[in-house]
From TrEMBL:
Entry protein name: NAD-dependent epimerase/dehydratase domain-containing protein
Pfam families the record matches: Epimerase
GO molecular function: oxidoreductase activity, acting on the CH-OH group of donors, NAD or NADP as acceptor
InterPro entries: Epimerase_deHydtase, NAD(P)-bd_dom_sf, NAD(P)_dehydrat-like
Coiled coil: none
Positions of the NAD-dependent epimerase/dehydratase domain: 19-102
Length: 280
């Protein structure tokens, strides 16, 4: 879950708005900052350390020199956050401490969303929530984030089998677009499920094997007893109604792998075995 909220407008115009993006150097936030700069916004991006070279990709974005202000702020540093939000027409709150425990992660997200609705109602803040499913797609930031490990472990040989499980996927560029669409749509309210399709892990490894046969993708499920889990149904109609055309999951997975290669997280393996030397 990530959140977007309109603060009471400071200038009342559509042009030249200033918005804040928390955790600006993250996987989703980096694309969001890029898109907002492209659309002419001035962006105040919070990062924990503006001088850390891992945030250099933000400074290199088009429009960053003129309209990106990196503000130092930890989520527990209220003064830092207040300074970042000051003068903004809206806040895109994406920063989140990461935990490896999926139960704590889901609990934390549910509590945070509930608290956000309560606070927004008390203070008359226009809050809209985007609920992305598992996010894949090309990286702008140099470091790998937790969700990209999902495909990387199949490609680098660390996962020898796949689990009997299903998962919904969405491309990071659509998640960024969704945030901007709800911000710019005055009628947007409530929760927006941001998902393109649901696949079984077996389908994921088969798609990857077809696209990148040179990697040691698993061919066996770790659960050979039970029938394959069935994909569940969902609706992304609310975002489609706002004009989002979701990137198909196959294209998303392809571009994820190409990006992992380009950023040096996955060695490029020649796709055809070189002809073996002649033995005379
Ligand atoms: N990726 C997914 O599949 C997915 C799916 C659904 C929802 N989400 C949610 O979307 C948001 C962004 O996800 P992401 O995948 O883009 O994450 P990410 O790449 O790991 O980025 C998380 C960001 O949060 C910042 N952060 C962590 N702890 C912080 C703290 N105490 N104070 C200030 N900033 C802090 C990090 O800053 P530093 O660089 O300083 O560490 C980082 O920039 C998160 O809320 C996540 O839970 C993600």
């Amino acid at each position: 879950m990530t959140m977007e909220s309109h603060l009471p407008s400071t200038n009342g115009t559509t042009d030249g708005k200033t918005v804040c993006v928390t955790g600006a150097g993250g996987f989703i936030a980096s694309w969001l900052v890029k898109l907002l700069l492209e659309r002419g916004y001035t962006v105040k991006g919070t990062v924990r350390n503006p001088d850390d070279p891992k945030n250099n990709h933000l400074k290199a974005l088009e429009g960053a020199k003129e309209r990106l202000i990196l503000c130092k702020a930890d989520l527990l540093d209220l003064d830092g956050l207040r300074a970042a939000v000051e003068g903004c027409d809206g806040v895109f709150h994406t920063a989140s401490p990461v935990t490896d425990d999926p139960n704590w992660y889901c609990y934390g997200k549910a509590v945070a969303e509930k608290a956000a609705y309560e606070t927004a109602a008390e203070r008359a803040i226009d809050l809209v929530v985007i609920n992305p499913v598992l996010v894949q797609g090309p990286l702008l930031q140099p470091n790998i984030n937790a969700s990209l490990m999902h495909v990387l472990k199949y490609l680098n040989g660390s996962a020898k089998t796949y689990t009997n499980a299903v998962q919904a996927y969405v491309d990071v560029r659509d998640v960024a677009e969704a945030h901007v669409r709800v911000f710019e749509a005055p009628e947007a309210k409530g929760r927006y499920l941001c998902a393109e399709s649901v696949l079984h892990r077996g389908d994921v490894v088969r798609i990857l094997a077809k696209l990148f046969p040179e990697y040691p993708l698993p061919t066996k499920c770790s659960d050979e007893k039970n029938p394959p889990k069935k994909p569940y149904k969902f609706s992304n109609q609310r975002l489609k109604d706002l004009g989002i055309e979701f990137i198909p999951v196959t294209q998303c997975l392809y571009e994820t792998v190409k990006s992992l290669q380009e950023k040096g997280h996955l060695p490029i393996v020649p796709s055809e075995t070189p002809p073996s030397p002649q033995i005379s």
